[in-house]
Write a structure and sequence with these properties.
By secondary structure, the chain is of the alpha/beta class. Helices cover 52% and strands 11% of the residues. Strands 2-1-3-4-5-6-7 form a seven-stranded mixed β-sheet. Strand 6, helix 7 and strand 7 form a beta-alpha-beta unit. The longest helix is centred in the middle third of the chain and has 28 residues, at 182-209. It is elongated.
């Protein structure tokens, strides 16, 4: 990763009044991190009981007010709402005249760059997209996890140094993402992080079914080592029956999963086929073994379709 240039003093944001629109898991943590850097949280909007509790825990004594009032009080506004709500929120704030010229408007969506903020830009706002590549709990531990966390940064070129300075002040490391690459960047993070949670949760469920009393304790060292190896070595870290071409073992896995945990079979087969393809491409899986392995995966996949019944039009 390219190391960003250290922002010059004139590019560093002055001490700012910070507001948060959307007190989910992300916004209060980022505002708390900015507070540690010397900025001043002044207002937060929160609707649900859970968001009110988060705001009170991470931003004590900061008033909870409607979104329009958050913008009226703030120099820097964090828009931390779900992706699908962001566009409508920005349009609504711009239409009501809540956006002020010169106001820093920051969203934290991984999917979007700064074009989603165009209505606010036309109203004179300064648009920034700062996406922390981190999973959030909604507690104070999130502020600590920001130390060394990468942020996907997209901004107009004239605001790039200011955007990077804000990330550095929160303890993060800015990584520049071109506007057109934001959806691909976000998809990559979802592949690695979101799907990992599903895989680990499924693995723990199956271990419990197999009689393991503490699956988390069993998986912790194994998964920690696997993650470390993967980050260090990429595909060279592949191991296990698929990478070795142990077709019989894979067939036994699928049979047991179909019997005891049928909801995991589709995911197992999909990941096994992808793992086999990557292991074969990188010379880890011998071609003569790959043929038998892929045959097993095709047979078990067909078996799953047969078990679901005929697929004709009169179904």
């Amino acid at each position: 990763m390219n190391q960003p240039a250290e922002p010059r003093a004139e590019d560093r944001p002055a001490r700012l009044a910070v507001g948060v629109v959307g007190a989910g898991r992300v916004g209060p943590a980022l505002a708390a991190a900015l507070q540690l850097a010397g900025h001043r949280p002044v207002a937060v909007s929160a609707v649900s009981d859970a968001s009110v509790r988060r705001a009170a825990a991470l931003l004590p004594d900061v008033p909870i007010v409607p979104p329009g009032q958050v913008l009226a009080l703030s120099d820097l506004v964090l828009l931390t709402v779900p992706d699908d709500a962001l566009s409508g929120l920005v349009e609504g704030l711009a239409e009501t005249g809540a956006v002020r010229p010169g106001q820093l408007l920051v969203h934290t969506s991984g999917r979007y760059g700064v074009k989603v903020l165009d209505p606010a830009l036309r109203a004179g706002a300064l648009p920034l997209a700062l996406h922390p590549a981190m999973t959030f709990t909604g507690t104070s531990v999130d502020v600590q996890r920001l130390a060394g966390c990468s942020f996907g940064v997209t901004a107009p070129e004239e605001l790039r140094l200011a955007a990077e300075a804000l990330v550095i002040e929160m303890g993060g490391e800015p990584e520049w993402i071109e506007e057109a690459n934001r959806p691909l960047y976000h998809a990559a993070l979802a592949l690695g992080a979101n799907h990992l949670v599903t895989l680990v949760a499924q693995s723990m469920d199956v271990l419990r079914t197999a009689g393991v009393a503490a699956p988390d304790r069993m998986l912790g060292p194994l998964l920690g080592a696997a993650l470390d190896n993967a980050l260090r070595s990429g595909d060279a870290a592949l191991t296990g029956p698929v990478a070795r071409g142990d077709a019989g073992t894979v067939a036994a896995h699928v049979a047991e999963l179909r019997k005891h945990a049928p909801g995991t079979v589709a995911g197992y087969l999909a990941m096994a086929r992808t793992t086999a393809d990557r292991a074969l491409a990188h010379g880890l899986l011998k071609p003569e073994l790959a043929e038998d392995l892929l045959g097993v995966l095709a047979d078990t996949s067909a078996g799953a379709a047969d078990a679901d019944g005929p697929q004709g039009d009169d179904r």
